[in-house]
Amino acid sequence: MQDRLDRLRERMRLTGTDLVAVGPTSHMRWLAGVDPHGDERMVLLLVSQTHAGFLMPALNQASVRQMTDLPFVAWSDDDGPLAALRDLLDLCGLPRSPKVALDEAMRADFALPLLTALGNPEWRFCHDTVGHLRARKDTDEIVALTASARLNDRAVKAAFAALRPGMTEGDVAHIIHDHYAAHGARPEFTIVAFGPNGAFPHHHTGDTHLTEDCAVLIDSGCRLGGYPSDMTRCAWFGASPSERFQSVASIVERAVAAGLAAAQPGAVARDVDKAARDVIEAEGFGAHFLHRTGHGLGIDVHEPPWITATSETLLDTGMVFSIEPGIYLDGDFGLRLEDIVVVDQDGARPLSDLPLTPLILPPG
């Protein structure tokens, strides 16, 4: 954690930032290893060049002290947080008109009193400070993300192997969740979509029953050791897939490969999106690719970098993100294939080792 604080202060120096203020969000977990009880009581971590410390409700300070050695300025329910906040700001040794990087995910009723106490300073979000650092994973983070991905592989593989006629989407999700629990993880999210439900990119897993000659989409992730996974695979439940399914599967596989090839250090994120999208548009399905090509993954399932048609982010070693093109055909099926990749000096490497090619699963 001291290394992360040191690197943050260097980013603050490079970006002309006097104060970084984060709430009880994933920024705080990444920066200080602290995940305090979250409610309406104001919790802040303030970092300047000379001080790093917490504004902490007295109610929670004993439990949070187990997570960090950083100093607290505590406040009680009887007194409220504002006097303690002013004391913490005094400790930070700020200039008269500080430049502040503000946690974009903190509560508004934490952020606005802070800005008022600072005299309405020049501020921006944390994208070029904490966000910049979080987007470049260190070795330990990549190890943790890989372990989560490999467990997710095994859970999804077990779910496909268990498919039987009459099962509901919810039954399949339970198989996945039980596998997570048996290996020390918890579900982060699970989408199981049978047949036409796969045409909804964010389908809510429900009571639809599995029948023969049906497309199956599973998009799932667990959290293991504090880090999540995210992966999508598809299958055909039946003896012989339709020609349309086979054709669409081939197109989406080629789109993933194109995105993977484009994801090189120094490339622009929008070019990864374009590489995958061009494959699908060339086959006449451009209108059926309904979303961006990818999103970053770290402590959060969705975090920068964003792999979109407009993103100017330069890809760098250590960045981790999804490549997940899809084609969604109303009333028939949807087919999305997703890998999480890490950028290294040689390009982009998938964290999953589960094959992309959709499975053919004859009943019985």
Spans with pLDDT under 50 lasting ≥5 residues?
none
Order of helices and strands: HEHEEHEHEHEHHHEEEEHHEEEEEEEE
Q: Which percent bin holds the helix content?
A: 25-40%
Please identify the structural class as seen in this structure: alpha+beta
Strand content: 15-25%
Please state the average pLDDT score: 97
Helix count equals 10
Largest sheet, spatial ordering of strands: 4-3-2-1-5-6
Distance between the termini: 53 Å
Rg, rounded, reads 23 Å
Instruction: Characterize the main sheet.
Output: 6 strands, mixed
General description of the model:
The protein has 364 residues and is an alpha+beta fold. It has helices at residues 2-15, 26-32, 61-64, 82-91, 108-117, 130-134, 139-161, 169-182, 243-262, 269-282, and strands at 19-22, 44-47, 52-57, 72-75, 99-102, 122-125, 186-194, 214-224, 227-228, 231-237, 294-296, 303-307, 320-323, 326-329, 333-336, 339-344, 347-350, 359-361. Helix content is 33%, strand content 24%. The longest helix is centred in the middle third of the chain and has 23 residues, at 139-161. The protein has 10 helices and 18 strands. Strands 4-3-2-1-5-6 form a 6-stranded mixed beta sheet. Strands 7, 8, 9, 10 and 18 form a 5-stranded mixed beta sheet that branches.
